[in-house]
Write a structure and sequence with these properties.
Elements lengths: L4 E6 L7 H16 L3 E6 L17 H12 L2 E9 L2 E2 L1 H8 L3 H4 L3 E7 L8 H12 L3 E2 L4 E3 L4 E2 L2 E2 L2 H29 L8
Parallel strand pairs: 1-2, 1-3, 3-5, 5-6, 5-7
Antiparallel strand pairs: 3-4, 8-9
Amino acid sequence: MRLPRIVAFSGNPGRPSRTRTLVEAIAADLARQRRIDLKVFDLVDAGPGLGVTLREALPLPAARMIEAMEGADGLIVASPVYKGSYSGLFKHVIDFLDPAALAGKPVAIAATGGGPRHALMVEHQMRPLFGFFTAHVAPTAVYAGEGEIRDGVVTDPRVAERVAAAATEFAHLLDTAEAARRAREAPPAAAAF
């Protein structure tokens, strides 16, 4: 049996970043629960030329990142908060995804920001965004402010609890998606006489 393919995407234009720390923390907690095949991307991995409007015009690094996201069994996504929402470039990357590729796909959502007033962005912006794609979004969203991540580590115990909860819920969603996939691929049962 193959390992679940997970793509973690940090929509932060810089590296290192608190946003990447957050997606890596969720992925690490998931990896403690089960073996996974993990790829982590930052916005910078898309390379120059991301500003195109047609998917066919994407530079190769960006096209490969989009293909990895579409081909994953689940996504862990996070964006820094800019003026009450996800970053424009984060959304631009998401806009290249084929909606059919995200239908029923498990997604864990997270964000980083400057303070508590940004915390609801994950609920008011990111959850509806992935709801549009009919993805299965983990119930627990994770937000971390400036003082809750230090030197690449989640230091706030409440944020760590949310990371653990999101990872556990995400694991359950992976199981559900795998069961649904197997049911679709199973041969039809013989008709009862």
